[in-house]
Specification:
Blueprint: E1 4-7, E2 10-12, E3 18-24, E4 33-39, E5 46-51, E6 58-60, E7 68-73, E8 78-83, E9 92-102, E10 108-109, E11 113-114, E12 118-122
Parallel strand pairs: 2-12
Antiparallel strand pairs: 1-3, 3-8, 4-5, 4-9, 5-6, 7-8, 9-10, 9-11, 9-12
């Protein structure tokens, strides 16, 4: 398993933006897919964004499509989640996952390495 350190998150007003980061160690990062999940109070964990190993293809849940962007920098072993036009319903704990498998049309099988989670709160 890779060692994962998440950063970013915090409190933001509706309509604002945040960027989350996950920095990973290990030699397998660039050969595997990655994804972002979130867990809101009283809700099931939701897979919101995935990206293939090269960064050339990505997929999003309908709840965030058009507002969130997943990206990666393999040279720095880092994945990102850009979040724009944030809404109160985006409030959740966000988790990155690396070492996964990405198949056709963005289907994602999570890998063994998870970030520690970071809180995103959208409120005025």
């Amino acid at each position: 398993q890779a060692q994962i350190v998440q950063s970013g998150g915090g409190l933001v007003q509706p309509g604002g933006s945040l960027t989350l980061s996950c920095a990973a160690s290990g030699s397998t990062f660039s050969r595997k897919a990655a994804g972002w999940y979130r867990l809101a109070p009283g809700s099931q964990r939701e897979l919101i964004a995935t990206i293939n190993s090269s960064g050339g293809d990505s997929n999003y849940a309908d709840s965030v499509k058009g507002r969130f962007t997943i990206s990666r920098d393999n040279a720095q072993n880092t994945i990102y989640l850009g979040m724009n036009n944030l809404k109160p319903e985006d409030t959740a704990v966000y988790y990155c996952n690396v070492g996964g498998t990405y198949v056709t049309r963005g289907r994602y099988y999570p890998g063994p390495s998870w970030g520690q989670g970071t809180q995103v709160t959208v409120s005025s």
